[in-house]
Specification:
heterodimer, A: alpha+beta, Phosphatase 2c, domain 1, six-stranded antiparallel beta sheet, five-stranded antiparallel beta sheet, 30% helix, B: 280 residues, alpha/beta, Rossmann fold, eight-stranded mixed beta sheet, 29% helix, 25% strand
Amino acid sequence: MQPVIQSFWLQKAGNSVKEYEDASGYDDQTHVAAVADGASDSFESRLWASALVRAFVRRPPLPDQYSILEWLANPIRTWKEAIHWDNLAWYAEEKAARGAFSTLLGVSLIPSSNDPNNQDPACYRWRAIAIGDACLFQLRGDKLVMSFPVENAADFGTTPVLISTQLQYSQRSLKGIRLREGECGRGDSLLLTTDALAAWLLSKEEKGEPAWHRIRSLTREGFAEVVSVAREQGEMRNDDVTLLLLRHSDCLAPKLD
Amino acid sequence: MPYTAEISRQNPGCFLFLIDQSGSMGDAFGGEPGRSKAERLADAINRLLYELTIRCTKDQSEGVRNYYEIGVIGYGGNVVPAWAGALSGKVLIPLREVADKPGRLEERRRKVEDGAGGHLEEAFKLPVWFEPVANNGTPMCQAFRMAHSLLEPWIQAHQASSPPIVINITDGEATDGDVRGASEPLRRLSTYDGEILLFNIHLSSRPGAPILYSDSDAVLPDEFSKLPFQVSSVLPPHIREAAKSEGYAVGSESRGFAFNVEIVEVIRFLDIGTRPKALR
Protein backbone atom coordinates (compact mmCIF):
# COMPACT_ATOMS: atom_id res chain seq x y z
CA MET A 1 0.00 0.00 0.00
CA GLN A 2 1.42 3.39 -0.92
CA PRO A 3 1.21 6.34 1.44
CA VAL A 4 -0.20 9.47 -0.16
CA ILE A 5 2.11 12.44 0.18
CA GLN A 6 1.28 16.13 -0.03
CA SER A 7 3.64 19.03 0.40
CA PHE A 8 2.70 22.57 1.48
CA TRP A 9 4.83 25.59 2.20
CA LEU A 10 4.63 29.36 2.51
CA GLN A 11 7.37 31.90 3.07
CA LYS A 12 7.34 34.42 5.93
CA ALA A 13 4.78 37.18 5.34
CA GLY A 14 6.58 40.19 3.87
CA ASN A 15 9.30 38.07 2.26
CA SER A 16 9.53 36.97 -1.36
CA VAL A 17 9.30 33.32 -2.41
CA LYS A 18 13.07 33.27 -3.02
CA GLU A 19 13.61 34.16 0.62
CA TYR A 20 11.96 30.98 1.96
CA GLU A 21 14.60 29.22 4.06
CA ASP A 22 12.95 25.90 4.92
CA ALA A 23 13.26 22.76 2.79
CA SER A 24 11.25 19.56 2.41
CA GLY A 25 11.66 16.41 0.37
CA TYR A 26 10.27 12.92 -0.08
CA ASP A 27 11.23 9.83 -2.07
CA ASP A 28 8.16 7.80 -2.99
CA GLN A 29 10.21 4.72 -3.89
CA THR A 30 12.21 4.45 -0.69
CA HIS A 31 9.58 6.21 1.51
CA VAL A 32 11.97 8.64 3.16
CA ALA A 33 10.82 12.17 4.08
CA ALA A 34 12.60 15.16 5.60
CA VAL A 35 12.03 18.81 6.49
CA ALA A 36 14.59 21.40 7.59
CA ASP A 37 14.48 24.99 8.81
CA GLY A 38 17.55 27.08 7.90
CA ALA A 39 18.56 29.58 10.60
CA SER A 40 17.71 33.01 9.25
CA ASP A 41 20.87 34.62 10.63
CA SER A 42 23.34 32.19 9.06
CA PHE A 43 24.91 32.30 5.60
CA GLU A 44 23.14 30.61 2.68
CA SER A 45 20.69 28.96 5.06
CA ARG A 46 18.29 27.90 2.33
CA LEU A 47 21.11 26.15 0.54
CA TRP A 48 22.06 24.30 3.75
CA ALA A 49 18.50 23.27 4.59
CA SER A 50 18.06 21.94 1.02
CA ALA A 51 21.40 20.11 1.09
CA LEU A 52 20.43 18.40 4.36
CA VAL A 53 16.98 17.36 3.14
CA ARG A 54 18.26 16.09 -0.23
CA ALA A 55 21.03 14.12 1.47
CA PHE A 56 18.61 12.59 3.98
CA VAL A 57 16.08 11.60 1.35
CA ARG A 58 18.80 10.15 -0.88
CA ARG A 59 20.43 8.15 1.91
CA PRO A 60 19.21 8.50 5.50
CA PRO A 61 21.98 8.04 8.08
CA LEU A 62 21.94 5.33 10.74
CA PRO A 63 20.27 6.76 13.83
CA ASP A 64 23.29 7.51 16.02
CA GLN A 65 25.45 10.62 16.47
CA TYR A 66 28.63 9.11 15.02
CA SER A 67 27.00 7.87 11.83
CA ILE A 68 25.26 11.20 11.38
CA LEU A 69 28.51 13.11 11.83
CA GLU A 70 30.08 11.02 9.05
CA TRP A 71 26.96 11.37 6.93
CA LEU A 72 27.22 15.19 7.21
CA ALA A 73 30.32 15.21 5.00
CA ASN A 74 28.22 15.06 1.81
CA PRO A 75 25.73 17.86 2.52
CA ILE A 76 28.62 20.00 3.83
CA ARG A 77 30.48 19.45 0.57
CA THR A 78 27.32 20.35 -1.39
CA TRP A 79 27.03 23.61 0.56
CA LYS A 80 30.71 24.51 0.25
CA GLU A 81 30.81 23.78 -3.48
CA ALA A 82 27.90 26.12 -4.11
CA ILE A 83 29.77 29.08 -2.65
CA HIS A 84 32.06 31.14 -4.86
CA TRP A 85 34.75 31.53 -2.23
CA ASP A 86 37.07 33.56 -4.46
CA ASN A 87 34.42 36.10 -5.25
CA LEU A 88 33.14 37.05 -1.82
CA ALA A 89 33.08 40.55 -0.32
CA TRP A 90 34.82 40.80 3.07
CA TYR A 91 31.55 40.48 4.95
CA ALA A 92 30.34 37.47 2.97
CA GLU A 93 33.73 35.81 3.43
CA GLU A 94 33.51 36.23 7.19
CA LYS A 95 29.85 35.20 7.37
CA ALA A 96 30.48 32.13 5.21
CA ALA A 97 33.41 31.17 7.44
CA ARG A 98 31.01 31.13 10.40
CA GLY A 99 28.95 28.49 8.60
CA ALA A 100 25.30 27.68 8.07
CA PHE A 101 22.86 26.26 10.61
CA SER A 102 19.55 24.42 10.38
CA THR A 103 17.15 22.11 12.18
CA LEU A 104 16.43 18.74 10.55
CA LEU A 105 13.69 16.14 10.91
CA GLY A 106 13.98 12.96 8.86
CA VAL A 107 11.53 10.05 8.79
CA SER A 108 11.98 6.64 7.17
CA LEU A 109 8.91 4.49 6.57
CA ILE A 110 9.43 0.75 6.58
CA PRO A 111 6.71 -1.20 4.76
CA SER A 112 5.80 -4.07 6.99
CA SER A 113 6.51 -6.65 4.29
CA ASN A 114 10.14 -5.81 5.08
CA ASP A 115 9.56 -6.12 8.80
CA PRO A 116 9.68 -9.73 10.03
CA ASN A 117 7.94 -8.75 13.29
CA ASN A 118 4.83 -7.38 11.64
CA GLN A 119 2.07 -9.77 10.61
CA ASP A 120 0.06 -7.15 8.74
CA PRO A 121 1.32 -6.57 5.20
CA ALA A 122 -0.40 -3.21 4.83
CA CYS A 123 1.04 -1.17 7.71
CA TYR A 124 4.23 0.79 8.21
CA ARG A 125 6.76 1.26 10.92
CA TRP A 126 8.38 4.65 11.01
CA ARG A 127 11.72 5.76 12.35
CA ALA A 128 12.46 9.43 13.01
CA ILE A 129 15.64 11.42 13.65
CA ALA A 130 15.27 14.99 14.95
CA ILE A 131 17.83 17.73 15.52
CA GLY A 132 16.01 20.84 16.69
CA ASP A 133 12.33 21.70 16.79
CA ALA A 134 10.91 20.60 13.45
CA CYS A 135 8.13 18.21 14.51
CA LEU A 136 6.58 14.89 13.59
CA PHE A 137 2.91 14.48 14.50
CA GLN A 138 1.01 11.22 14.18
CA LEU A 139 -2.75 11.48 13.81
CA ARG A 140 -5.30 8.68 14.07
CA GLY A 141 -8.18 10.10 12.06
CA ASP A 142 -8.28 13.65 13.41
CA LYS A 143 -6.82 12.88 16.82
CA LEU A 144 -3.24 13.54 17.83
CA VAL A 145 -1.61 10.37 19.13
CA MET A 146 2.06 11.38 19.11
CA SER A 147 4.16 14.54 18.96
CA PHE A 148 7.95 14.35 18.52
CA PRO A 149 10.38 15.71 19.60
CA VAL A 150 8.44 18.64 21.09
CA GLU A 151 5.44 17.68 23.23
CA ASN A 152 4.32 21.04 24.65
CA ALA A 153 3.70 24.30 22.80
CA ALA A 154 5.53 26.17 25.57
CA ASP A 155 8.75 24.37 24.65
CA PHE A 156 9.06 26.19 21.33
CA GLY A 157 10.77 29.55 21.18
CA THR A 158 13.93 28.71 23.04
CA THR A 159 17.00 28.34 20.87
CA PRO A 160 16.74 24.91 19.27
CA VAL A 161 19.62 22.53 18.69
CA LEU A 162 20.98 23.12 15.19
CA ILE A 163 23.11 21.16 12.79
CA SER A 164 25.90 23.10 11.11
CA THR A 165 28.37 23.07 8.26
CA GLN A 166 30.90 23.54 11.09
CA LEU A 167 31.73 19.97 12.08
CA GLN A 168 32.90 20.84 15.60
CA TYR A 169 29.61 22.61 16.28
CA SER A 170 27.61 19.70 14.87
CA GLN A 171 29.58 17.23 16.93
CA ARG A 172 28.46 19.08 20.07
CA SER A 173 24.88 19.57 18.95
CA LEU A 174 24.44 15.95 17.90
CA LYS A 175 24.54 15.08 21.59
CA GLY A 176 21.05 16.62 21.57
CA ILE A 177 19.77 14.36 18.80
CA ARG A 178 16.38 12.73 19.36
CA LEU A 179 15.29 9.36 17.98
CA ARG A 180 11.88 7.71 17.92
CA GLU A 181 10.08 4.79 16.30
CA GLY A 182 6.41 4.00 15.83
CA GLU A 183 3.74 2.30 13.78
CA CYS A 184 1.08 3.56 11.40
CA GLY A 185 -2.37 2.04 11.15
CA ARG A 186 -5.57 2.56 9.14
CA GLY A 187 -6.57 6.19 8.86
CA ASP A 188 -3.27 7.36 10.33
CA SER A 189 -1.39 10.37 9.05
CA LEU A 190 2.12 11.60 9.67
CA LEU A 191 2.83 15.33 9.55
CA LEU A 192 6.36 16.67 9.27
CA THR A 193 6.37 20.42 10.03
CA THR A 194 8.85 23.16 10.82
CA ASP A 195 8.49 25.03 14.09
CA ALA A 196 6.12 27.93 13.35
CA LEU A 197 3.38 25.60 12.10
CA ALA A 198 4.21 22.92 14.68
CA ALA A 199 3.91 25.40 17.55
CA TRP A 200 0.58 26.62 16.25
CA LEU A 201 -0.84 23.11 15.81
CA LEU A 202 0.26 22.06 19.31
CA SER A 203 -1.03 25.24 20.94
CA LYS A 204 -4.42 24.78 19.22
CA GLU A 205 -4.51 21.22 20.54
CA GLU A 206 -3.66 22.38 24.06
CA LYS A 207 -6.33 25.09 23.97
CA GLY A 208 -8.98 22.52 23.08
CA GLU A 209 -9.34 23.94 19.54
CA PRO A 210 -7.55 21.24 17.55
CA ALA A 211 -6.81 22.24 13.96
CA TRP A 212 -5.76 18.81 12.65
CA HIS A 213 -8.91 18.28 10.59
CA ARG A 214 -8.38 21.62 8.87
CA ILE A 215 -4.80 20.82 7.99
CA ARG A 216 -5.54 17.33 6.71
CA SER A 217 -8.01 18.34 4.05
CA LEU A 218 -6.26 21.29 2.47
CA THR A 219 -5.57 22.50 -1.02
CA ARG A 220 -2.58 24.74 -1.58
CA GLU A 221 -4.79 27.84 -1.50
CA GLY A 222 -6.56 26.56 1.60
CA PHE A 223 -3.22 26.08 3.34
CA ALA A 224 -2.10 29.63 2.52
CA GLU A 225 -5.44 30.92 3.82
CA VAL A 226 -5.24 29.03 7.13
CA VAL A 227 -1.67 30.24 7.69
CA SER A 228 -2.43 33.87 6.75
CA VAL A 229 -5.41 34.07 9.07
CA ALA A 230 -3.50 32.48 11.95
CA ARG A 231 -0.63 34.94 11.44
CA GLU A 232 -2.95 37.93 11.27
CA GLN A 233 -4.68 36.87 14.47
CA GLY A 234 -1.31 36.64 16.19
CA GLU A 235 -1.79 32.90 16.80
CA MET A 236 1.03 31.78 14.53
CA ARG A 237 4.50 33.33 14.60
CA ASN A 238 5.41 34.97 11.30
CA ASP A 239 8.03 32.61 9.89
CA ASP A 240 8.41 30.22 6.95
CA VAL A 241 5.93 27.31 7.21
CA THR A 242 6.47 23.85 5.77
CA LEU A 243 4.32 20.73 5.92
CA LEU A 244 4.72 17.23 4.52
CA LEU A 245 1.56 15.20 4.98
CA LEU A 246 1.71 11.41 4.65
CA ARG A 247 -1.50 9.37 4.76
CA HIS A 248 -1.94 5.63 5.13
CA SER A 249 -5.66 5.24 4.73
CA ASP A 250 -5.63 1.58 3.78
CA CYS A 251 -3.71 0.13 6.72
CA LEU A 252 -5.43 -1.94 9.38
CA ALA A 253 -5.31 -0.22 12.78
CA PRO A 254 -2.58 -1.69 15.02
CA LYS A 255 -3.36 -2.62 18.61
CA LEU A 256 -3.25 0.54 20.77
CA ASP A 257 -0.72 0.51 23.64
CA MET B 1 2.65 48.69 22.87
CA PRO B 2 5.68 50.85 22.14
CA TYR B 3 9.00 49.53 20.93
CA THR B 4 7.51 46.43 19.31
CA ALA B 5 8.04 47.29 15.63
CA GLU B 6 10.05 44.69 13.72
CA ILE B 7 13.22 45.75 11.96
CA SER B 8 12.79 45.00 8.26
CA ARG B 9 13.98 46.26 4.92
CA GLN B 10 10.69 48.09 4.48
CA ASN B 11 10.95 49.62 7.98
CA PRO B 12 14.66 49.80 8.76
CA GLY B 13 16.11 50.77 12.12
CA CYS B 14 18.63 53.57 12.65
CA PHE B 15 21.68 53.99 14.85
CA LEU B 16 23.32 57.40 15.28
CA PHE B 17 26.56 57.64 17.26
CA LEU B 18 27.71 60.98 18.68
CA ILE B 19 31.41 60.76 19.45
CA ASP B 20 33.35 63.18 21.62
CA GLN B 21 36.52 64.18 19.79
CA SER B 22 37.75 66.75 22.32
CA GLY B 23 41.40 67.08 23.35
CA SER B 24 41.03 64.96 26.49
CA MET B 25 39.99 61.99 24.34
CA GLY B 26 43.68 61.86 23.43
CA ASP B 27 44.41 60.68 26.99
CA ALA B 28 44.19 57.08 28.14
CA PHE B 29 41.28 55.68 30.14
CA GLY B 30 41.32 56.40 33.87
CA GLY B 31 41.91 52.87 35.06
CA GLU B 32 44.32 51.57 32.46
CA PRO B 33 47.23 53.33 30.75
CA GLY B 34 47.90 52.67 27.09
CA ARG B 35 46.10 53.63 23.91
CA SER B 36 43.98 56.77 24.03
CA LYS B 37 40.23 56.84 24.56
CA ALA B 38 39.84 58.15 21.01
CA GLU B 39 41.73 55.20 19.53
CA ARG B 40 39.96 52.58 21.58
CA LEU B 41 36.58 54.12 20.88
CA ALA B 42 37.21 54.30 17.13
CA ASP B 43 38.21 50.65 17.29
CA ALA B 44 35.05 49.77 19.27
CA ILE B 45 32.77 51.51 16.77
CA ASN B 46 34.58 49.90 13.81
CA ARG B 47 34.14 46.49 15.41
CA LEU B 48 30.49 47.15 16.18
CA LEU B 49 29.84 47.99 12.53
CA TYR B 50 31.83 44.91 11.52
CA GLU B 51 29.59 42.62 13.60
CA LEU B 52 26.40 44.43 12.60
CA THR B 53 27.26 44.09 8.92
CA ILE B 54 28.05 40.41 9.27
CA ARG B 55 24.86 39.79 11.23
CA CYS B 56 22.85 41.31 8.36
CA THR B 57 24.64 39.35 5.61
CA LYS B 58 22.35 36.72 4.12
CA ASP B 59 23.87 35.02 1.10
CA GLN B 60 26.01 35.48 -2.00
CA SER B 61 23.40 37.09 -4.19
CA GLU B 62 21.85 39.53 -1.76
CA GLY B 63 24.88 40.47 0.31
CA VAL B 64 24.00 42.75 3.22
CA ARG B 65 20.36 43.51 3.92
CA ASN B 66 19.60 47.15 4.62
CA TYR B 67 18.04 46.52 8.00
CA TYR B 68 19.65 49.68 9.35
CA GLU B 69 20.84 53.14 8.47
CA ILE B 70 23.89 54.31 10.37
CA GLY B 71 25.23 57.75 11.17
CA VAL B 72 28.25 58.95 13.14
CA ILE B 73 28.84 62.53 14.21
CA GLY B 74 32.12 63.62 15.77
CA TYR B 75 32.22 66.70 17.97
CA GLY B 76 35.42 68.47 19.00
CA GLY B 77 37.01 71.10 16.83
CA ASN B 78 33.95 70.81 14.57
CA VAL B 79 30.65 69.00 14.69
CA VAL B 80 30.58 66.91 11.53
CA PRO B 81 29.69 63.48 10.22
CA ALA B 82 32.72 61.33 10.88
CA TRP B 83 32.68 58.89 7.96
CA ALA B 84 35.98 58.61 6.09
CA GLY B 85 36.98 57.70 2.54
CA ALA B 86 34.22 57.14 -0.02
CA LEU B 87 31.60 57.87 2.63
CA SER B 88 32.93 61.22 3.80
CA GLY B 89 30.43 64.02 3.73
CA LYS B 90 27.52 61.60 3.96
CA VAL B 91 25.39 61.41 7.05
CA LEU B 92 22.86 58.55 7.48
CA ILE B 93 23.97 55.63 5.34
CA PRO B 94 22.20 52.32 4.58
CA LEU B 95 24.12 49.38 5.98
CA ARG B 96 24.93 47.83 2.60
CA GLU B 97 26.72 50.98 1.52
CA VAL B 98 28.57 51.14 4.83
CA ALA B 99 29.66 47.53 4.25
CA ASP B 100 30.83 48.17 0.71
CA LYS B 101 32.81 51.33 1.42
CA PRO B 102 35.05 51.09 4.46
CA GLY B 103 37.88 53.63 4.52
CA ARG B 104 40.33 50.74 4.37
CA LEU B 105 40.63 47.03 5.20
CA GLU B 106 43.23 46.03 7.75
CA GLU B 107 44.76 42.56 7.88
CA ARG B 108 44.50 41.30 11.42
CA ARG B 109 45.12 37.92 13.02
CA ARG B 110 43.06 36.01 15.54
CA LYS B 111 43.06 32.63 17.27
CA VAL B 112 40.45 30.03 16.41
CA GLU B 113 39.83 26.48 17.60
CA ASP B 114 41.65 23.93 15.48
CA GLY B 115 39.16 21.11 16.10
CA ALA B 116 41.67 19.09 18.12
CA GLY B 117 41.44 21.00 21.39
CA GLY B 118 44.03 23.62 20.49
CA HIS B 119 44.14 26.92 18.66
CA LEU B 120 45.59 28.21 15.47
CA GLU B 121 46.03 31.71 14.13
CA GLU B 122 44.14 32.85 11.11
CA ALA B 123 44.09 36.07 9.13
CA PHE B 124 40.94 38.09 8.68
CA LYS B 125 40.07 41.47 7.24
CA LEU B 126 38.91 44.17 9.62
CA PRO B 127 37.35 47.18 7.94
CA VAL B 128 38.17 50.62 9.30
CA TRP B 129 35.52 53.28 8.90
CA PHE B 130 36.73 55.75 11.56
CA GLU B 131 40.04 57.08 12.62
CA PRO B 132 40.57 58.52 16.11
CA VAL B 133 40.44 62.31 16.45
CA ALA B 134 41.11 64.33 19.59
CA ASN B 135 41.36 68.12 19.72
CA ASN B 136 39.60 71.16 21.17
CA GLY B 137 36.50 71.47 23.34
CA THR B 138 33.28 69.52 23.72
CA PRO B 139 30.43 71.09 21.72
CA MET B 140 27.96 68.40 22.79
CA CYS B 141 24.91 70.67 22.58
CA GLN B 142 25.68 71.42 18.98
CA ALA B 143 26.01 67.66 18.37
CA PHE B 144 22.54 67.08 19.84
CA ARG B 145 21.14 69.83 17.63
CA MET B 146 22.76 68.31 14.55
CA ALA B 147 21.38 64.91 15.52
CA HIS B 148 17.93 66.45 15.70
CA SER B 149 18.24 68.07 12.27
CA LEU B 150 19.45 64.77 10.76
CA LEU B 151 16.84 62.58 12.37
CA GLU B 152 13.77 64.77 12.01
CA PRO B 153 13.39 64.06 8.26
CA TRP B 154 14.30 60.40 8.81
CA ILE B 155 11.55 60.11 11.42
CA GLN B 156 9.04 61.71 9.05
CA ALA B 157 9.98 59.23 6.33
CA HIS B 158 9.97 56.17 8.60
CA GLN B 159 6.96 56.50 10.87
CA ALA B 160 6.37 52.73 10.87
CA SER B 161 9.93 51.97 11.94
CA SER B 162 11.35 51.28 15.35
CA PRO B 163 12.61 54.74 16.47
CA PRO B 164 16.30 55.58 16.07
CA ILE B 165 18.75 54.85 18.83
CA VAL B 166 21.21 57.69 19.47
CA ILE B 167 24.29 56.77 21.49
CA ASN B 168 26.40 59.65 22.80
CA ILE B 169 29.90 58.76 23.97
CA THR B 170 31.88 61.37 25.87
CA ASP B 171 34.54 61.71 28.52
CA GLY B 172 33.48 65.07 29.85
CA GLU B 173 30.91 67.81 29.98
CA ALA B 174 29.50 69.96 27.24
CA THR B 175 31.45 73.19 26.82
CA ASP B 176 28.69 74.86 24.82
CA GLY B 177 25.66 74.91 27.06
CA ASP B 178 23.14 72.83 28.97
CA VAL B 179 22.56 69.42 27.40
CA ARG B 180 19.10 69.10 28.88
CA GLY B 181 17.69 71.91 26.78
CA ALA B 182 19.84 71.06 23.75
CA SER B 183 18.75 67.41 23.65
CA GLU B 184 15.07 67.91 24.38
CA PRO B 185 13.87 68.40 20.79
CA LEU B 186 15.85 65.28 19.82
CA ARG B 187 14.34 63.22 22.62
CA ARG B 188 10.82 64.26 21.66
CA LEU B 189 11.08 62.95 18.08
CA SER B 190 9.06 59.77 17.67
CA THR B 191 7.71 57.25 15.22
CA TYR B 192 4.42 55.38 15.74
CA ASP B 193 6.45 52.84 17.64
CA GLY B 194 7.84 55.25 20.24
CA GLU B 195 10.19 58.10 21.04
CA ILE B 196 13.81 58.22 19.99
CA LEU B 197 16.09 56.49 22.46
CA LEU B 198 19.06 58.51 23.66
CA PHE B 199 21.74 56.57 25.53
CA ASN B 200 24.78 58.20 27.11
CA ILE B 201 28.13 56.60 27.82
CA HIS B 202 30.58 58.54 29.94
CA LEU B 203 34.13 57.28 29.65
CA SER B 204 36.31 56.83 32.68
CA SER B 205 38.86 59.55 33.24
CA ARG B 206 39.98 58.51 36.71
CA PRO B 207 39.88 55.21 38.62
CA GLY B 208 36.55 54.58 40.29
CA ALA B 209 33.47 52.41 40.23
CA PRO B 210 31.50 52.31 36.97
CA ILE B 211 27.75 52.87 37.14
CA LEU B 212 25.44 51.33 34.53
CA TYR B 213 21.72 51.23 33.79
CA SER B 214 20.72 53.30 36.86
CA ASP B 215 17.04 53.91 37.37
CA SER B 216 17.44 56.93 39.61
CA ASP B 217 19.96 59.74 40.00
CA ALA B 218 19.82 59.40 43.80
CA VAL B 219 22.77 56.98 43.67
CA LEU B 220 24.86 59.19 41.41
CA PRO B 221 27.75 60.97 43.11
CA ASP B 222 27.56 64.48 41.60
CA GLU B 223 26.06 66.86 39.04
CA PHE B 224 28.68 65.67 36.55
CA SER B 225 27.04 62.23 36.50
CA LYS B 226 23.44 63.34 37.03
CA LEU B 227 23.26 65.40 33.85
CA PRO B 228 23.88 62.57 31.37
CA PHE B 229 21.52 60.39 33.42
CA GLN B 230 18.76 62.98 33.13
CA VAL B 231 18.98 63.02 29.35
CA SER B 232 19.13 59.22 28.98
CA SER B 233 16.07 57.24 27.88
CA VAL B 234 14.55 54.34 29.75
CA LEU B 235 15.54 51.02 28.17
CA PRO B 236 12.90 49.46 25.93
CA PRO B 237 11.97 45.83 26.80
CA HIS B 238 14.19 44.01 24.29
CA ILE B 239 17.30 45.95 25.32
CA ARG B 240 16.46 45.49 28.99
CA GLU B 241 16.25 41.74 28.35
CA ALA B 242 19.57 41.82 26.52
CA ALA B 243 21.19 43.62 29.47
CA LYS B 244 19.70 41.10 31.87
CA SER B 245 20.96 38.20 29.80
CA GLU B 246 24.44 39.74 30.06
CA GLY B 247 24.22 39.70 33.83
CA TYR B 248 23.32 43.32 34.58
CA ALA B 249 20.78 44.12 37.28
CA VAL B 250 18.12 46.10 35.44
CA GLY B 251 14.59 47.13 36.31
CA SER B 252 11.70 48.61 34.40
CA GLU B 253 13.02 52.16 34.93
CA SER B 254 16.66 51.45 34.10
CA ARG B 255 18.07 53.94 31.64
CA GLY B 256 20.55 53.56 28.80
CA PHE B 257 23.29 55.21 30.83
CA ALA B 258 26.84 54.18 31.61
CA PHE B 259 29.13 56.32 33.74
CA ASN B 260 32.87 56.16 34.37
CA VAL B 261 33.30 53.04 32.24
CA GLU B 262 36.34 51.47 30.70
CA ILE B 263 36.48 50.26 27.11
CA VAL B 264 35.30 46.70 27.88
CA GLU B 265 32.08 48.06 29.38
CA VAL B 266 31.72 50.43 26.44
CA ILE B 267 31.89 47.51 24.04
CA ARG B 268 29.34 45.52 26.05
CA PHE B 269 27.01 48.53 26.30
CA LEU B 270 27.21 49.12 22.55
CA ASP B 271 26.53 45.45 21.85
CA ILE B 272 23.51 45.42 24.16
CA GLY B 273 22.21 48.73 22.85
CA THR B 274 22.35 47.57 19.24
CA ARG B 275 21.16 43.99 19.78
CA PRO B 276 18.25 43.38 17.42
CA LYS B 277 14.86 42.01 18.02
CA ALA B 278 14.13 39.59 15.18
CA LEU B 279 15.32 40.87 11.82
CA ARG B 280 12.82 40.18 9.07
